[in-house]
Structure formats: C-alpha cells, structure tokens
Amino acid sequence: MLSGSGTMNFTLQTPFLAALAVVLGAVWPAGAAAADTLIFAPLPLESPGTVAAQWKPVLGHLEKSLGITLRIDYSASYGEILDKLHAGKIDLVQLGPLPYVRLRETFLQAEPIVHFNESDGRPDYTCALVAPAEAKQAQQGIRAIKGKTVALTQPLSTCGYFSADTLLRQAGVALEHNRYRYLGRHDAVALAVIRGEFEVGSMKTAIAKDHAGLGLVVIAESAPLPGFALVANTMTIKAERFAQIRQALLEADAETRSRWGVYRYGVTAAQDGDFAAVRRMLGKTVIPEKGNF
Length: 293
Description:
Elements lengths: L2 E3 L9 H10 L12 E5 L6 H19 L2 E5 L4 H9 L5 E4 L1 H10 L3 E7 L7 E2 L1 E6 L3 H5 L8 E4 L5 H13 L8 E4 L3 H9 L5 E5 H6 L5 E6 L3 E2 L2 E5 L5 H12 L3 H4 L9 E3 L6 H7 L11
Parallel strand pairs: 1-3, 2-3, 2-4, 8-9, 8-10
Antiparallel strand pairs: 4-13, 5-13, 5-14, 6-12, 7-10, 7-11
C-alpha cells in the first residue's frame, strides 16, 4: 500500500493532498505500523504529485514481489533527505551521484542497490547548460557565459552548481564570474530560463530536452555521470532484504517494466565504486549553500 508522509504531512485536509493520495493509491491509516513497512524518499526533481505518480508502478512492483508495504516520504530538499537518513527515518532513497557522494562522506551505511537506466538503456546520464534559442549565449556557446544570470537547481544537485561550474571551468570561465541563484526543481529552472527571468540554466539534459519545444536549447553537456540510484540505509535494511530488492528490480520482465513510466528502461546493479569519477571531479570544490545575488 502506497501513501505519502513526512515533510509535507500528506493528509486529506486540502483538495491538493486528497488528489495526491489518489495518485499514491491509498492513505496510510493513523497510527498504523508494520514490520515489513519501508519508508522511501524520492528526489524532489518535480512536484510531489508528479514524483508520486512516477514512482507508483516501481514501488507497487516491489510491494507485490516482496510482500512489503512502501510509504513515500517527500522532502523539499536534498539536505532534508540526508538528515532523515542519518536519523534512521528513511530506509530507501533515490539519489543522484553528487548527493550520494556527499552522504557517503559521513554515512557509510548508505549502499547503492541499482542505477535506473536512461532511455538509451545506459546506467548514466548527463547535465546541461541551457539558454533560450534566440539568446546570444546560445549562438556563441559556453565561452559567452560570463556576467550572466544563471538559474541552478539545489546546492546538492549534481546538475546544479557542481556540473555548471565544472563545464564552465573546462571552457576557461567560471560560475563565480556570473550571478547565480538556486531555484529548486529542474523544471523550475527550465521555465525560468524560458520566461527570460534568467539567461542561462543548469539541469539534467533529459529534462532540458523535454522543454525544447518551448525554445530551450543545450549550450554544453557534461560527460556521462552515474545514473540516479536507489540507495539503501543499511542501518535499517538488512543484507537479505537488500538482495531481495535488487533481485526483484533486476529480474522484472519487459512487460512489467513497460508499466514503470519514466523508469521503464530498467535497472543496472550498482556499487560504490561507480561514483569514483564524481569524487575525482568534486575534489575540494566548495559548493555555496546560497546564490550570490
């Protein structure tokens, strides 16, 4: 049985939350508890309703395969998710490569189970710098990004400050030579650039391409990064359950995966070593927690 809990306190007190509960499939009864209930935290890439709808088929498959109950705990930021992991309040979490690497620095109990494949079937993805198609920087390329306004996702987002600064430095410029601000979700960045509120944005390339029809173009694209991973809190999930979750996802047949929506491209087994390149890229980079304007 899927339901929402946590940061947004999903109860049926507003039409929005009531609609969200329908999307999730059911409402968790007050005071209910079960030994085989796991708490899952998705990434705050898009709105809670969208995220819940995307995850419902995958979580439903795990519930049916393993005879467990999964509850969704939606948090508004990466930082909040990591705090809950440390506190043992989350059992499973979806993490991008940068937040995973940061988490492992202080929490060795985080262990990746699988990577979610992209549309090409690969367990990796890229980040992009984007601009309106008619903009000067779109025509002149990445070297023209100096003194611009740049929309970023979140400090711990791989496709936020981290990838934007990496791409700019590779071209001989730097993010600090621009004015940047964190907007939160990837779709918020895309729309802010399309509306002309920012001259440049940084986000996951796949999301940028989803907005191409609205006039958004990719200026520069990063090297492939490890795909988003389903990560276990091994403080609360034992080795046997860890193996069962991995097996259930890896062995899902094509018909089952076809119902997984954005995750229909399947999964690849993950391990900590997959993130070595991200650790090298990150080095001693200090990522500001706030924008500079």
